[in-house]
Amino acid sequence: MASRLNPYISFNGDARQAMEFYKDVFGGTLRLNTYGEFGQPDVPEADKIMHGMLETPSGFTLMGADNPPGMEQTAGTNFSVSLSGDDDKELRGYWEKLSADGSVSVPLEKQMWGDVFGMCTDRFGIPWMVNITEQQS
């Protein structure tokens, strides 16, 4: 899988409705996963979207999720740029450059869903998410 760059939008509890709306607008395949499906079945947000991805026939990719518990959303914090793919070396290289002189909110490390993932804000204030999937052999 080639690396890709796409927007990632955060929502205040209505990610499912928003992502379904975007599917109606753009068509394509929509995958939604809840906090409950990713190992948090007992939290009040268990039915909220932890990760959603819409891939369209035109080649668009749009990702979105409900804000994680305890994370406030204010103007300007509802959007990140997402880098994802299975090229570990390439994506770690991007991570090192993006996080240098910036701030790391989630260290780049193995996560509960099995991928290596991290979040940082670069020195210009742009939030980034990097997700490295394990290469399939």
UniProtKB/TrEMBL annotation:
Transmembrane segments: none annotated. Residues 5-130 form the Glyoxalase/fosfomycin resistance/dioxygenase domain. It holds the Pfam family Glyoxalase. This is VOC family protein.
